[in-house]
Structures are given as C-alpha cells and as structure tokens.
Protein: Pseudoazurin
Organism: Silicimonas algicola
Amino acid sequence: MKTYVYKRIRSPTRTEVTRKAHLMFTKVLIPAAALALLAGVAAAETYTVEMLNRGEAGAMVFEPAFLQAQPGDTITFVPTDRSHNSATIGELLPEGAEPWDGAINEEVTVTLTEEGLYAYQCDPHAAMGMVGLIQVGAPTNLEEVTAAADDLRGKAKNRMTELLTQVTE
Ligand SMILES: [Cu+2]
C-alpha cells in the first residue's frame, strides 16, 4: 500500500506576523528616522564673512557685516586681507553664548547655538568702524546691544547703529 505524505502548507502564525512587522520596524523605519535626523543636522548653514581692507561699505569692513542665521549655523571669518581679526565685543552676545577671540590673520570658525545678537569687531580697526553683527533666531538681547552701541568708539558706533537697523524681530 502506498502512503502519501501531505505537506501541510500552513498560514503564518500570529507570532510570525508580529515578528515580520518588528523586522520592518527595525530594518526600514529606524534607519529612515535616523536619516531624517541626519538631514536635519546637515541642513545647518555655513556662512563666510570676509575681513577686508576695502569693501562695499568702505574701508576696513567685515563683509557681509550683518548676517541673519539660525541656531546651529556656522560662521567662518576669513582673513582675505591681512592684519584683521574677529572677536566678540565684551558681553554683547546672547546669554550662555561662547565668546570668540581670533588672533590677527587667523581664520575663525564658530557655531552659534544661542538665539540673539552677536556683536564682534576687528580689534585694531574697531574705531575705524570694523564691526559686525550676527542675528541668530530671535534678537533676545536687542536692548542691551542697542544701549551698548552708543558707547562704542569712533566709527564703530555709527556702523553698529546702522547694522542694528537691519535686525528683524
Ligand atoms: Cu581689521
């Protein structure tokens, strides 16, 4: 007598279905989320500010002297011409923000994480008006910087006052 062996074709059990969904989650969805996160980080902008003997605004300038950025953006100050530096002015930066103090002829790169205004200058040429302003997000310290701009020496006062008019609330 012949015996037939039937191979049972079974439908997936509940555990298998759950397992498949789990694999889908770990193999597809988590990497997708990670990529989206990475894309968010990569979206941070990088700006370049040149230090010049002469620019569109006249002699001894940062160009652009006013910059609007977002938290996490990076700014590089490039010593295109010699004998300049970039350094924050006293306390004229947002609370909790890191000051910077570049040496003469030094290329400085800063990542700005705190919202507010960052006022900076070139030490040897500040009185000639070589100052700059960066707005990161909302101008949280606008009052302080506006009040302090009055105390700046020489042409620095005029230029900083002009830069402050470009701040948007
Ligand atoms: Cu300078």
The pocket of copper (II) ion is lined by residues 51, 60, 84, 122, 124-125, 130 (CB under 6 Å). The chain has a mean pLDDT of 88. The chain has three helices and eight strands.
